[in-house]
C-alpha cells in the first residue's frame, strides 16, 4: 500500500525540500489544523453536545452570534496562543486583535480567521467551515495594545504567506495554500489526522454553474444584472450555453464546489450594502479565498479591482466578491470596467 501523506509530512516537505515555508509557519498551520479538528468534533456532536443555537450575544459587526461562532473562536485562540509562532490574531468575532499573552513567547506571524463560516447553516445541518489567513508581522510593529496592533494587519492580500479553509461537510476537509499551489487534505477521524487527497488543484477556466443570492437581484448594480440575465438567457442568449445555479450560503461550501468542478461565486455590491462596502469581510473571507482561488488558476475581483491588491484601511472592512473560473470572472469584471 502506498504510504499516506499526512499534513505534517506535506508541510515538512514544503519546508525541507522546497524551502517554501519556515518551521514556525509549519507549526502554525499544524496548530490551526488541530483546532479545526476540535471544531469538527464539536460540530459532529450537534444537539447531543449542546452546541447548537444562539449564544445570546452580538459580534462587532452587529450580527447575532451562535454558540458555535463563540466556541470555534475560543478553540482557535487557545490553540494558537502558546506556540511561540504568532505575534497576534484577529477574528471576525472580535472587535480588536488578540495579543499573545506575555507569559508566552512571541513569533513573527499574524493570523486572521473567520472561526465559523456559514452560521445560518449550523442549526439546519448543512456544511459550514473555518477560514484563515497568515501574514508576516512587519518589523517594528507596535503591539503594545490591541488598538495599536490593528495597523500591523492592514496589509494587502498579496502579502499572505498561507491561507486555507476547513469545510465541515459529509467529510471534513482542509484546503491549504502556502503559495505553492492548492492541496486538499481529508480528515481521517479514526487516526485523528489530515491526509493529503489532492494536490495542484486546478479550477477549469470555463463553467456553466453560478452561485449568487438571487433574492438580492433588485439591489444589484447594472454589470451584475447584465451578466446574470445573460446566463439565465441560456443557449439562446449571448453566452450560448445553459447555466445551472447553486447557493449553499456558506462561502466555504460554495468555494469548495468551485475548487472541485469550477463555477463562479458572487456576493457583489448592492444598494443596501453600499454603506458597509459589501457583505463579505476582506481579512477573514475575501483575501484567503482569493489567494486560494488564484493559486488554483482562478480569478478573484470586486468587479473593479483584483481582491488581493486592495490596501485595507480597517480590520473588519467588507468588499464585494466575484471569484472562480477565470474566463467568467474576467467577463463580469469587464462589464464593470467597460
Ligand atoms: P458568516 O457565517 O461567517 O457570517 O458568513 C456568512 C457569509 C458567507 O458564508 C455566505 O456566502 C454569505 O454570508 C451568505 O449570505 P446570505 O445569507 O445573504 O445568502
Ligand atoms: Mn463567513
Ligand atoms: Mn463567521
Describe what this molecule looks like in 3D:
The protein has 338 residues and is of the alpha+beta class. The chain folds into two domains: 7-198, 2-Layer Sandwich (Fructose-1,6-Bisphosphatase, Chain A, domain 1); 209-337, D-Maltodextrin-Binding Protein, domain 2. The chain is 31% helix and 24% strand. The strands form four sheets. An eight-stranded mixed sheet has the order 4-3-5-6-7-8-9-10, with helices on both faces. The chain has a five-stranded mixed sheet with strand order 12-11-13-17-15, with helices on both faces. Strands 1-2 form a two-stranded antiparallel sheet. Helix 2 (23-45) runs antiparallel to helix 3 (67-81) and helix 5 packs across helix 8 (326-337). One manganese (II) ion binds at residues 69, 92, 114, 116-117, 119.
Arithmetic mean of pLDDT: 96
Question: Helix coverage percent of residues?
Answer: 25-40%
Considering the protein shown, what is the CATH homologous superfamily of the largest domain?
A: Fructose-1,6-Bisphosphatase, subunit A, domain 1
Question: How many E strands?
Answer: 17
Number of helices: 8
In what order do the strands lie side by side in the largest sheet?
Answer: 4-3-5-6-7-8-9-10
Amino acid at each position: 500500500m502506498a504510504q499516506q501523506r499526512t499534513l505534517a509530512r506535506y508541510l515538512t516537505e514544503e519546508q525541507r525540500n522546497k524551502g517554501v515555508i519556515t518551521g514556525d509557519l509549519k507549526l502554525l498551520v499544524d496548530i490551526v489544523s488541530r483546532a479545526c479538528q476540535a471544531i469538527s468534533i464539536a460540530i459532529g456532536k450537534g444537539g447531543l453536545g449542546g452546541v447548537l443555537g444562539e449564544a445570546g450575544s452580538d459580534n462587532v459587526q452587529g450580527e447575532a452570534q451562535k454558540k458555535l461562532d463563540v466556541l470555534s473562536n475560543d478553540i482557535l485562540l487557545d490553540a494558537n496562543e502558546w506556540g511561540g509562532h504568532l505575534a497576534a490574531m484577529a477574528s471576525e468575532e472580535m472587535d480588536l486583535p488578540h495579543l499573545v499573552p506575555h507569559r508566552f513567547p512571541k513569533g513573527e506571524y499574524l493570523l486572521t480567521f473567520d472561526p465559523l463560516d456559514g452560521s445560518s447553516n449550523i442549526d439546519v445541518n448543512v456544511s459550514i467551515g473555518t477560514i484563515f489567513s497568515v501574514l508576516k508581522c512587519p518589523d517594528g510593529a507596535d503591539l503594545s495594545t490591541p488598538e495599536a496592533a490593528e495597523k500591523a494587519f492592514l496589509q494587502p492580500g498579496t502579502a499572505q504567506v498561507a491561507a486555507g479553509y476547513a469545510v465541515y461537510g459529509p467529510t471534513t476537509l482542509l484546503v491549504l495554500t502556502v503559495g505553492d499551489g492548492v492541496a486538499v487534505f481529508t480528515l481521517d477521524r479514526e487516526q485523528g489526522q489530515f491526509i493529503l487527497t489532492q494536490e495542484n488543484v486546478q479550477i477549469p477556466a470555463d463553467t456553466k454553474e453560478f452561485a449568487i443570492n438571487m433574492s438580492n437581484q433588485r439591489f444589484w448594480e447594472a454589470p451584475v444584472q447584465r451578466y446574470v440575465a445573460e446566463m439565465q438567457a441560456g443557449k439562446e442568449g449571448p453566452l450560448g450555453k445553459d447555466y445551472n445555479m447553486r447557493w449553499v450560503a456558506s462561502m466555504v461550501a460554495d468555494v469548495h464546489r468551485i475548487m472541485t468542478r469550477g463555477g463562479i461565486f458572487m456576493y457583489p455590491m448592492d444598494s443596501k450594502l453600499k454603506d458597509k462596502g459589501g457583505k463579505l469581510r476582506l481579512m477573514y473571507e475575501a483575501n484567503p479565498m482569493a489567494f486560494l482561488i488564484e493559486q488554483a488558476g482562478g480569478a478573484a475581483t470586486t468587479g473593479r479591482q483584483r481582491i488581493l491588491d486592495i490596501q485595507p484601511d480597517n480590520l473588519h472592512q467588507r468588499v464585494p466578491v466575484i471569484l472562480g473560473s477565470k474566463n467568467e470572472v474576467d467577463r463580469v469584471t469587464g462589464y464593470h470596467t467597460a
